[in-house]
Structure formats: C-alpha cells, structure tokens
Amino acid sequence: MEVMQKGGSNMIVSRRKPTASGDRPASARLPKWAGLVCLGAVLAPAAWAQADTPIDFTISDDRVVPTEDFAVKVSVLGAAISYNGTDFPVTTQLIVDGQIYEPFGPLDDPEAGDVNDHSPPRHFIVPQVFDPSVSIAVASTSWHFDLSEWKSRNTSQPSDMVMVLRNGDPVPNIDGFGDQADAADLVATYIDTDTNTMSLDINQVIYLFELATDDVDSAYADFQDLVVLVTLGTTPEALEAGDMVDASYD
Ligand SMILES: [Ca+2]
Q: 79 alpha carbon to ligand 1 midpoint, in Å?
C-alpha cells in the first residue's frame, strides 16, 4: 500500500501498489478484503474530537511516517492463531527510527515473548519524542508447536499478508479459522456499528497480521493472527493522558 499526499498535508490519498503477484489473474489476486487496502481514505483535517492533538502522517507501503514531531504508543489488541485447539506462539516488536522496542517480550523468543495468550490488550508508550519523517514499523513472528519459526512479517516491507485499517475503512469481513474469533471481533471496540466502518482517531492505524499462510486465498488466511494498534501523539505524556480504550475478545 502506498499513500501519497495531495493538496496539502491534511489530504492523504492511497492507491494500491502493484505487487509481485501482479502476473496472476486479477480474480485470483483480489481477496474478499481487497477493497479495504485500496480504500485508504481521504483524511479530514484537524476538526477531530479527541484527547490528544492529531499528528499528520503518511503510510508509505505499510510504514507509518509522521510529518511532525511525534510520540508513539503501540497496543497489541489480540492474537488468534491455532490448530486443533493448540495456540501457536506469536511475538512482536516495534521499530522506530531503527530502534527496536520489545515491551511485550523478545521477537525471537516464542516463550518469553508470546502474546497469543488470550490476555487483555497490552499497551506501551515509547518514552521519547521523535523527529518527523522517522518511520514506524511493526514486526511479528509466529512459531510452530515445536517452537520453530513459522512466518515473519515486518510492515516496513509491503506484504499482502498484512492489512492496514484506518478510520472509515470497512470492517474486515473475514471468518476466523476453525473456532477462532473473527478479525472484526478483535477490533470490535473500534467499529462504528451504524455504518459498519472502522472508527479510529485520525492518528491511529490498526495492523492485521496473517501469520499462518502466505496465500491470501487459503482458509487459514483470517488476518487476526496478530492485531496491533499504533497511536501517534505529540508527547508520551499526552498519549498517557489519552483514553486507554481496551478491546475485548475471546
Ligand atoms: Ca488466525
């Protein structure tokens, strides 16, 4: 996904970037959620009612790139990847300006870093203000039962296996594999049920990671193996003072 600025800093328009799968038939490379990634949305300027001052940012491929000084909060809203009732470990890290943050445990340790444990959402505010144009990325890895590495994603590298949700996007309509919760269940707190669209602040994005398969047409592809919310603010203190909205799911 590539987002371009148009008509000033407050207008952000997205378009789908050709991918390596571009030589496949169109019908084969457009999963049922394709419209979500294409929509990206035109963002309204600052007339947004929220606790913190909005931070302008663009999304280049899947990287969040703020256009002014910023602080960042990362929230693991949930994870759901399992087979025959056994959970696969999932680990994650935040990368800001090349610095790695692992507040929820190491990316390379499926035991100490596992966030697929049905816990309530986890939140972390990086205690630092960053310069504009520094990119933010989220990495994630799933692990097999024997604790061997399974799939890895990093939002700094565009992938069909990561979806990005912003305010106004349609709610993902993807069934969870087996008895897992649906992607929509994991983001339920951020859904406007009147319009069936995502209701996020202008300074927020949600990443939906598929960590079971590299095939978007697979039944395993349910895009809730890890769900991460990124919130930008002016300072760590401002983020701390903001509403800490928790999602809940089974
Ligand atoms: Ca799943």
A: 8
CA of 246 to the centre of ligand 1 (A): 20
Beta-carbon contacts of 120 under 8 Å, excluding residues fewer than 6 positions away, are 246, 248
**Beta pairing partners, 154:** 139
Cβ-in-10-Å burial (0-12, 13-18, 19+) of 221 comes to buried
pLDDT tens column, 51-62? 345 677 777 667
Joined together, the tokens standing for residue 223 give: 């895009």
pTM of the model: 0.77
181 C-alpha to ligand 1 centroid (Å): 8
Going by pLDDT thresholds of 50, 70 and 90, the confidence category of residue 158 is confident
- Cα 235 to averaged position of ligand 1 atoms, centre (Å): 34
Closest to 93 (Cα-Cα) out of 142, 145, 165, 141: 141
